[in-house]
Amino acid sequence: MPRKSAVAIVDDDISIREALTDLLESYGYESRSFESADHFLFDRHRQDVLCVLLDVNMPGRSGLELQNVLVRETSPPAIIFVTSRQDARTRMIAMRGGAVAFLTKPLDIAQLMTALGTIASEMGA
Prior knowledge:
This protein has helices at residues 14-26, 37-41, 63-70, 88-96, 109-123; strands at 6-10, 31-34, 49-54, 78-83, 101-104. The protein has one domain (6-123): Rossmann fold (3-Layer(aba) Sandwich), CATH 3.40.50. 40% of the residues lie in helices and 20% in strands. The chain contains five helices and five strands, in the order βαβαβαβαβα. Helix 1 (14-26) links the parallel strand 1 and strand 2 (31-34). The chain has a five-stranded parallel sheet with strand order 2-1-3-4-5, sandwiched between helices. The protein is of the alpha/beta class and 125 residues long. Keywords: Phosphoprotein, Plasmid. This is Response regulator. Residues 6-120 form the Response regulatory domain.
């Protein structure tokens, strides 16, 4: 089984994907970006993804719907929601669904890096 090391960015906004890619790479993380949940689901290399940075609102399958699919897998990636949606109900659903963190835009970089560091150390990455 390949070692999980990449961080996937799943967001329909290209500027967010590009900014997160640059940020992650500046901290030494390998990243891959996807414009939709389905693009991520059908990627043949997604099994080596350690963590998914996931938007809530996207055309097609939402971030919460993708989370529901991923948590049923044998070895699911960790999920960190990065969203502009700030309502308590959505946050509660995401966290009860197993998300590691629910971060809002504009993103607090320190919070993101802390969450990613925790995930990496727990997964031995």
